[in-house]
Specification:
heterodimer; A: alpha/beta; 4 domains; 33 helices; elongated; B: Rossmann fold; 16% strand
Chain lengths: 835, 281
């Protein structure tokens, strides 16, 4: 190409400066020259200047020019901007970023927008060159977000400027995290998030940087807190109730480790538990999702036989035991795996949803409405979304007897399994040309609201036979309990040794006082109240009911009264602080109930006021010629205490387990509950005592009195409550009999035994015959009633509906399905009972 | 249409009312053998105890039985301030005289009515002991204040009701009282019967609406163990159908008749509304 003499001259000069530069320029120059000789010269001068300022800067400028020119159809404005970088040292990296993005800036922001974009960057270059470089290196589209223009960039930069002024926060630290926060929560959330980060930054650089990278706990939890949408963590109970209503029975609900970074939140299952994210888009999606996921379990996606069938169909080996990975099913399709996975999920989800429709009326319609309501679809996977919608229509048509898309028809057969879904999916995958999927976001977007990728977790195949499934889960629970026990950190001090280890072996207890008992004590038993002291410490004997022989076994269970050795004032104080508000509320509620308690006593022989009703009937009877008793006064006085209550807490090992929803152990809630109960009782003024129990074999039932009826509440007792812990097993019948006996000598018309439990009655020596202790407990309850003591059981065991009605009788127990509500509920239950 | 319980409106009438010719029987749909049991108990004049949750039809059953047996029904709703004078009677001043006034129980004993003590556990125990002598072979009522005794009319019958919920744990009847009665257990009627009741109680209800309401009721009762003190009753279903009949939107009708009254718990009402919405979506 021929250039004008001036340009040729400038080119020659450049060549002298650098051959490389010259070669690069020659590629670009033809695009610049049409803007006129003057422009070309200025551009060449800029190349020279930047190249001599810094080689890399020059190269970046020249290489980027071609694109910018094409998009902006100008030369001078951006050339001028590029030259501005020369005022800062070591700015080539910033310029490189600038040149890489400026074309996009013109393209998406327009000329004015580009101008503003550059200005913001220049300000940061002036403050700190790394920040400027980070700014320019960030793709414009990312800065602006999905829908924003230059305003979005300004909104993004504004908090950084404020924090730079006040706390010297650098944009380079702030930017990547801030963009993500903005995308998740909107621009208004950035400032509070970043201010917190700036504070953390000042206390420690590493911690602060982790915060800004969204890697620290506090950053994530702050994000989750502000995340818009429907918060499932708070709605755990609602979800559990819905599952109970629609599917009956229990599902294991757990919170998943989802964080906003992982893309679209889904409710998932592995065949055993249902995992829900902290937040979902809205209530509708969350509810559909939990119903759908439970549907997978109910309609047996994880059925071992069906899964085997499916794996055989795919000619993939199916592991005989343990968890199963879905991956091999999809691997066969190589690069097409994602495509097939989507088709398979559409088919299997359809099969399951068709089943769920039988449990939940209008479920399919609801899902279809939600799916239509979603609006924008991801272009890459819209075809899958539409296919799924079409399949829903097919299911609805099948339900109303209309014409059904034959492709999906096999899924509506009554006996259809996951293997059928697989077969249908293979056919559809073969016959339909569906677009390829590469992007994770697009993949996620292909799912209708409520559905989720089925293969996201390793599968736990479920046995077809319900019974074996139950025993299996039972065994799992046991082993889990043992694990929990094993990792106990605060080992109970006065627990007998080896409480978990001997679970399995059914050893006869050595008789008292013999050598083996002695040696057990000698070998490190520091327990001063141990039972192996001789007959005087054997405790108090109670009979036990043997249903197999329909008779009482005399002096069978032995209860030892003990004091709880450990106390923990710190824990008590922590709990008092944590539940201060709840306690205040409770006390208020109690006070508002008080007037009924100290209601004037009517028809008294003496008192400070006339009882008008009594006076009228007195006068009337007198006139009628009778001589009525002159009990015509009323008196305000605290009534004779009417109710006496014992709170009897199950202190077996199981209360040491960690709560499934996190946030500590069950024992924390138990302690809090007992403490709140005690404090409320102080306010109510009824006679009360607090005790705990645990057992190991029939002759070793420990009964810990924390507070007797005649004791007054003290710091010591409070500290003991803080020190409550779990050990050993649950021989409830003996404990009930003892608690009933302890009511003797308490002068109250109504006596209540409030039992706080977390599981069924069990002991090491029940030989696996659950019914034995159930029946015995049932009899103990009957005996208590006969003695004028009303047992009432409050339990946190959600399976308790299976056995409590038999033991306590309907209406004499309450299942709390929300363990966290235990502390507040316990006093409330008492208040309701005493009404 | 006149029924035994709706004679003349807005006019006071005596609590003892004999069913009259032309009265229409109260509607009751038998669920099991309760009618036969009651008739047998009446034949032998044994006292009867009706047990069951609120709103399952105990009172209606008794109205129906009283009509069938052609006996007047005297109902006393018990409360914690109910004294034995409220049942038996008292002296009242009238002008310069004091006149004895029979209480509802005495009236029933004298006239041979069926006396119904509703929610007996709510009454104080001292007022419930007056019924002891009436419920065994003596069939006598002692009027202590007058120093008299009445042998009950040969048609007199005593019926009590109570609802074994967990609020009554401490207020349960004494076993010595309980075992004087023939006890009939009530529960919410089977699906088919409940549907029939809705259609009969609220004329004009569409069968599919009744079907849906009954289905909602079934599901809602499953939540009993999640903290509901009382579960959704047949009466609540009737109310809901009635509200719909009055032109209210089905979802709103269910909310005001079946959800709002039984719980203040936000999550529970949420779950109940889920059930309603699913059926009326």
């Amino acid at each position: 190409m021929k250039y004008s003499p001036a340009v040729t001259k400038a080119l020659a000069q450049l060549r002298e400066l650098s051959v490389v530069a010259h070669r690069e320029v020659e590629q670009v120059l033809p695009a610049i020259v049409p803007h006129g000789e003057d422009v070309a010269l200025q551009w060449l001068a800029a190349c020279t200047a930047l190249f001599s300022f810094e080689r890399d800067a020059g190269k970046a400028f020249i290489r980027g020019s071609l694109d910018v020119e094409r998009v902006s159809e100008t030369v001078l404005p951006w050339t001028g901007q590029a030259l501005a970088f020369m005022q800062w040292r070591a700015s080539w990296r910033a310029l490189e970023g600038f040149m890489a993005n400026v074309a996009r800036a013109y393209g998406s922001l327009g000329h004015a927008g580009e101008q503003r974009w550059a200005e913001i960057g220049f300000q940061w270059c002036a403050r700190q060159i790394e920040s400027g470089a980070a700014y320019f290196a960030t793709p414009v589209l990312e800065l602006a977000g999905r829908h924003g223009g230059i305003t979005a960039i300004e909104q993004l930069a504004a908090p950084a400027e404020e924090l730079y002024e006040s706390r010297k926060l650098m944009l380079s630290t702030y930017l990547p995290g801030a963009i993500r926060v903005r995308n998740l929560l909107g621009a208004q959330a950035i400032l509070s998030w970043a201010s917190r980060g700036a504070d953390i930054m000042q206390s420690g650089r590493a911690r602060g940087e982790a915060y800004f990278r969204l890697e620290s706990e506090e950053s994530l939890s702050l994000l989750l807190e502000h995340l818009p949408g429907y918060r499932l963590t708070d709605r755990n109970r609602l979800l559990a109730m819905l599952l109970d209503v629609w599917f009956g029975g229990e599902f294991d609900l757990r919170e998943s480790a989802w964080s906003p970074e992982k893309g679209r939140p889904f409710i998932e299952t592995d065949g055993r538990s249902i995992y829900f994210p902290a937040v979902m888009a809205d209530r509708e999606e969350a509810i559909l999702a939990v119903l759908h996921t439970a549907g997978h379990m109910r309609y047996r996606t994880f059925d071992r036989t069906a899964m085997q069938d499916m794996f055989a169909e795919a000619k993939v080996d199916f592991p005989k035991t343990g968890v199963v990975s879905w991956a091999p099913l999809f691997m066969r399709f190589g690069d097409d795996a994602l495509r097939f996975q989507l088709v398979f999920d559409i088919c299997e989800d359809l099969r399951v949803d068709f089943g769920v429709q039988h449990n939940v009326p209008n479920y399919l319609k609801r899902m279809r409405n939600a799916a239509h309501g979603l609006g924008v679809r991801h272009p890459e996977t819209a075809a899958y979304y539409d296919l799924a919608l079409a399949s829903l229509d097919a299911a609805l048509a099948h339900g109303s007897g209309g014409a059904v898309d034959p492709r999906f028809a096999p899924l509506f057969e009554p006996g259809a399994t996951v293997a059928d879904a697989y077969r249908v999916a293979v056919t559809i995958h073969r016959t339909m040309s569906l677009p390829a999927v590469t992007d994770l976001e697009a993949f996620h977007a292909a799912y209708l609201p409520g559905r989720s990728p089925n293969a996201s977790r390793m599968a736990h195949p479920q046995e077809s036979d319900d019974e074996s499934q139950q025993t299996q889960s039972g065994a799992d629970q046991n082993s889990q309990q043992q694990e929990e026990g094993g990792e106990e950190t605060e080992a109970p001090k006065n627990a007998e040794s080896g409480d978990q280890g001997e679970d399995g072996e059914k050893q006869e207890m050595p008789s008292y006082g013999d050598s083996s008992g002695q040696s057990a004590r000698a070998s490190g038993q520091s327990d001063k109240e141990g039972p192996h002291h001789g007959s005087s410490d054997k405790g108090i004997p109670y009979p036990e009911w043997d249903y197999r022989e329909s008779r009482y076994k005399r002096n069978w269970s032995w209860v030892q009264e003990k004091r709880l050795a450990e106390s923990n004032m710190a824990e008590t104080q922590r709990l008092m602080k944590q539940y201060a508000n709840a306690l205040k509320r409770l006390k208020k509620a109690i006070q508002s109930q008080k007037p009924t308690r100290t209601a004037p006593l009517t028809q008294q022989l003496d008192g400070d006021d006339m009882d008008l009703n009594a006076v009228v009937s007195y006068v009337a009877e007198k006139r009628a010629g009778r001589s009525p008793r002159p009990n015509i006064y009323k008196r305000r006085e605290i009534r004779q205490r009417e109710v006496a209550v014992t709170l009897l807490a199950d202190m077996s090992t199981s209360i040491m387990q960690h709560l499934p929803e996190g946030g500590g152990r069950l024992v924390d809630r138990v302690r809090a509950g007992v403490l709140l109960f005690a404090e409320s009782m102080e306010e109510v003024g009824d006679a009360y005592s607090i005790a705990g129990f645990c057992s190991k074999y029939r002759d070793n039932v420990s009964y810990y009195t924390l507070k007797g009826f005649d004791e007054t509440m003290s710091e010591d007792i409070r500290a003991q409550i803080g020190g409550m812990s779990g050990r050993l097993a649950t021989r409830m019948g003996a404990a009930i009999r003892h608690a009933t006996a302890r009511f003797e000598g308490v002068e109250s018309r109504r006596r209540l035994l409030l039992i706080l439990s977390d599981g069924r009655p069990e002991d090491y020596d029940d030989g696996g015959d659950r019914r034995y202790l159930h029946e015995d407990t049932r009899m103990a309850v009957k005996e208590a009633v006969a003695k004028g003591v009303h047992p009432f059981c409050v339990t946190v065991d959600t399976m308790a509906n299976q056995y409590l009605p038999q033991i306590f009788g309907p209406g004499h127990y309450l299942v709390l399905d929300h363990i966290n509500s235990l502390p507040n509920k316990l006093p409330e239950i008492y208040l309701r009972l005493r009404r | 249409m006149k029924t035994a319980t709706s004679r003349v409106r807005g006019v006071e009438h005596d609590i003892v009312q004999m069913p009259q010719v032309g009265d229409v029987s109260p509607y009751y749909e038998p669920q099991g053998n309760e009618v036969a049991v009651f008739e047998a108990a009446y034949k032998r004049r044994l006292p009867v105890m009706l047990k069951g949750p609120t709103g399952c039809g105990k009172t209606r059953f008794l109205e129906y039985m009283a009509f069938q047996l052609k006996r007047p029904l005297v109902t006393v709703s018990c409360h914690e301030d109910l004294t034995s004078s409220d049942l038996v009677g008292r002296f009242l001043l009238e002008g310069a005289d004091t006149i004895w006034h029979d209480g509802p129980l005495t009236r029933a004993v004298k006239t041979g009515a069926i006396c119904y003590l509703d929610e007996i556990v709510e009454a104080r125990t001292d007022s419930t002991v007056v019924i002891h002598s009436l419920t065994d072979h003596r069939r006598k009522l002692t009027i202590e204040k007058k120093g008299q005794e009445i042998d009950a009319h040969e048609d007199f019958m005593l019926v009590i009701s109570y609802n074994p919920g967990y609020q009554t744990v401490l207020k349960d009847l004494k076993p010595s009282t309980k075992q004087r009665f023939i006890a009939i257990n009530f529960d919410f009627p089977p699906e088919e019967v409940e549907r029939k009741i809705l259609l009969r109680e609220v004329p004009g209800t569409k069968p599919e609406i009744a079907q849906q309401l009954v289905a909602i009721g079934r599901k809602a009762r499953l939540l009993k163990d999640h903290g509901l003190e009382e579960s959704t009753s047949t009466r609540a279903l009737v109310y809901a159908a009635s509200m719909m009949g009055a032109g209210l939107d089905p979802v709103v009708a269910c909310q005001v008749a079946m959800v709002n009254p039984i719980t203040d718990d936000v999550e529970l009402s949420d779950a109940l509304m889920e059930i309603v919405n699913a059926h009326f979506a």
